[in-house]
Amino acid sequence: MKITMRPELLRVLIHSKLQDGRLPHDSITKVWSSPSAGETCDGCDLILAKEDLLMAGTTLTRGRMSLHFHVVCFRVWDDQRRAPQS
Ligand SMILES: [Zn+2]
After folding, report:
1. What is the chain's Cα-based Rg?
2. Ligand 1 centroid to 84 CA: how many Å?
3. How far is the CA of 85 from the centre of ligand 1 (A)?
4. Model confidence over 5-37: pLDDT tens digits?
5. Is position 1 within any domain?
6. What is the extent of the structural domain holding 74?
C-alpha cells in the first residue's frame, strides 16, 4: 500500500523541521535519484515504498550525510528552504 501525506500537512511538517534544524536550509551540493530500497523519508518520516523514486541529496552543512526524500517531499523542502525566513 502506498502511503502519502496530505500536501498541507507535509508543508507544515517540513516547515517545522526547517525551524528546529532537523532539515538544513543551506544549498544542496548534490542531488540524485534512484529506486527506493526502503529508506525513511527525511521529510515526512514515512518509509519509501518500493515503487517510489528516492530523491537523495547532500548539503554543505550535512557534508556526506545524505538526506532521503520522496519526490514530493523533496520539492516541498527545496521550496521552503529557499523561502524567506519570517
Ligand atoms: Zn516523504
Report:
1. 12
2. 23
3. 23
4. 888 999 999 999 999 999 999 889 999 999 999
5. no
6. 7-82
